[in-house]
Amino acid sequence: MITFILKDKPTKLFVIFAAFFVANALIAECIGGKIFSLEKLFGATPSSFSLLGESGLSISLTCGVLLWPLEFIMTDIINEYYGPKAVRRISYIAVALIGYAFLMFYMAINVPAADFWHGTNISNGVPDMANAFNAVFGQGMWIIIGSIVAFLVSQIVDVTVFHKIKKATGEKKVWLRATGSTIVSQLVDSFIVLFIAFYLGQHWSMQKVLAICMVNYTYKAVVAILLTPVIYIVEHRIDKYFGKETAHKMRQAAMGKEEA
Length: 260
Fold this sequence. Notes:
This protein is mainly alpha-helical and 260 residues long. The chain has one domain (2-39, 61-113, 126-254): Arp2/3 complex 21 kDa subunit ARPC3. Helix content is 72%, strand content 5%. The two termini are 27 Å apart.
């Protein structure tokens, strides 16, 4: 069996894609607790603007957005060659393992720390390691729930929109189905995670949730458009790796069209 996996190119590539997809999703969740300033990243002064009546807004984003665009590129590529069932399967696996990871984080936080591991002399640059560990890995339950639900729902939306466009365009207009599905699914993802984590969990106003959602979504939509050429580059390499005939058959099978 393992010999077959190692020799069969489509199977081998799917295993690599699935492993990267799950690892990327898990890493994004782990680093998502840090908020960074997009303006400062490019050497600019943080802005302060109003949107939907909410003032003092700036382009501050979770570090998770650095990796999520890669996740949606992977979704589109797997969708293109392996079909919606494959995307749903690895999405369910990713969600299960993210839930498992958070459970392990919770257990690790509640395991008593060794006395020598605590540091209290902050003035000398020695932090309290136990508090630091808990702060990094102890995300709020509402944020965890919101993140997992948003990821799963947005993946299903991405798959659905992708295949509706693909059925209408065939193998042409890769940019339309890849970018279109990502833009729609990212809107769903941005709203759900903020709605659950902050509207339900922190009792923010809907106005504030929508304002911040629009800021986050604008960034994601722009990145999705900018990364469209990457889809073409990767698919070109995959076609070359599989061979045009095998790649064409896989695309047809992904759309539910088996050739005689």
